[in-house]
Amino acid sequence: MKAIVTTRPLPALEPDSLIEIERPRPKASGRDLLVRVEAVAINPVDTKVRASVANVDGVILGWDAAGVVEEVGPDVTGFQRGDEVYYAGDITRPGSNAEYQLVDERITARKPRTLSFADAAAYPLVTITAWEALYERLGIDRHGADAGKSLLIIGGAGGVGSMAIQLARLAGLAVIATASRQASRDWVLSLGATHVVNHGEFLAGQLAKIGFPEVDFIANFNNTDFYWGVMAEVIKPLGKIVGIVETASPVDLELLKAKSATFAWEFMFTRSKFQTPDMGAQGRLLEETAGLIDIGRIKSIVGERLEGISADNLRKAHQRAESGALVGKLVLGGWA
Ligand SMILES: NC(=O)c1ccc[n+]([C@@H]2O[C@H](COP(=O)([O-])OP(=O)(O)OC[C@H]3O[C@@H](n4cnc5c(N)ncnc54)[C@H](OP(=O)(O)O)[C@@H]3O)[C@@H](O)[C@H]2O)c1
User: Fold this and answer.
1) What are the tens digits of pLDDT across the range 278-330?
2) Is 0.85 topped by the overall pTM?
3) Distance CA 200, CA 179 (A)
4) CA-closest candidate to residue 65, choices 31, 92, 94, 23
């Protein structure tokens, strides 16, 4: 099978940063599905791993895919050959930038019926992240018990922000999303954000001006260290904050003490990496999201497309992701 790999850290557009090779097609065992990959999406994790790989055999990146089940392992109970699926996969295993990929059935779901493979591939990684961040780490009740409470989303127009805005609105929250450009402002408003503030300017002052000097919840999808002080300042007493981006330097936990504020990490690969007993929750949340997409309650988060999965297009996709100019997700469909 064709596989696109990285062997050493190089700038995205260098011809050798991502190269196409032949790899033996894997066989499904245990609870694995062998999926024929039809479309993939790019995430910051791809560029972060590419920047740190040193492996002469090459590492297959890609943690968002949609495709067709080709073969099932002997212990699989929920899927059969021919099922159309979508999933993010597992950071400890080869990724989706290959014609075939093994994925555990527990972190996989049937893809939304109404979407093409490319449109479906946009969702899994950011959906799992946003769902776990909001509904699990922040404990927001998705059936409406927290309706009317306020959520500040830092980095609203990114992939994770695009899903978080929609999941928070489904729960009835007031959503203040940050966006720094006209295109990203328009994007967050189109997804349902009730207010927009600019992360390029002083956040506390802007929040006070729009009537939210403090907020019930904060979901920070950007620099954890940089926003630590302002998060401590604008979180309500007993409020909750979730972060998803690794810290570059230590943060001062003491700043949250007087308010008894909670800080929680969200890492969407935790369940698959540690094979937690509840890892099937990810398959179920993807299944539920597919249903919400099919009835029109969740909008498209595709911002850009490239036709054809190839080393050349993946290099372009990495470069776009690193440019910081994307809104929503970049997807690649079909094999070039
Ligand atoms: N822990 C996890 O499980 C997990 C999962 C997914 C992602 N992540 C991490 O979370 C981060 C976001 O991921 P993503 O997929 O949403 O990324 P993304 O799509 O690349 O995010 C792009 C967005 O970031 C915004 N942004 C740029 N500079 C910012 C700043 N200084 N403050 C606030 N927002 C800023 C931009 O908004 P403007 O254009 O408006 O400036 C842009 O829309 C990445 O670091 C990623 O690695 C972690």
Assistant:
1) 999 999 999 999 999 999 999 999 999 999 999 999 999 999 999 988 999 99
2) yes
3) 8
4) 94
Distance in angstroms (rounded) separating the CA atoms of residues 239 and 229: 15
Q: In the Cβ-directed half-sphere of 215, how many Cα atoms lie within 13 Å?
A: 29
**Atom 41 in ligand 1: residue holding the nearest Cα:** 180
Q: Which CATH architecture has domain 127-265?
A: 3-Layer(aba) Sandwich (3.40)
Q: Cβ distance 146 to 140 under 8 Å?
A: yes
Q: Which residue's CA lies nearest to atom 20 of ligand 1? A: 158
Q: Which atom of ligand 1 is nearest to the CA of 268?
A: 3
Question: Atom 34, ligand 1: which residue's CA is nearest?
Answer: 155
* pLDDT tens for each residue of 9-68: 999 999 999 999 999 999 999 999 999 999 999 999 999 999 999 898 999 999 999 999
Q: Where are the domains of the chain?
A: 2-122+278-335, 127-265
pLDDT (average), residues 239-243: 98
Nearest protein CA to atom 18 of ligand 1, as residue: 158
Q: How far is CA 35 from CA 46, 81, 257, 269, 308, in A?
A: 20, 9, 48, 19, 17
- Could you say which of 3.40.50.10490, 3.90.180.10, 3.30.160.390, 3.40.50.720 is the CATH number of the domain covering 2-122+278-335? 3.90.180.10
Residue of 42, 128, 160 with the most ligand 1 atoms within 8 Å of its CB, for mutation: 160
Mean pLDDT of 79-105: 98
* Cα 63 to middle of ligand 1, angstroms: 16
Mean pLDDT of 151-167: 98
pLDDT at residue 158, as a whole number: 97
Residue-averaged pLDDT of the chain: 97
DSSP-H helix ranges across the chain: 44-50, 117-121, 124-131, 159-170, 182-190, 203-209, 224-234, 270-273, 280-294, 311-323
Residue 247 Cα to ligand 1 middle (Å):
14
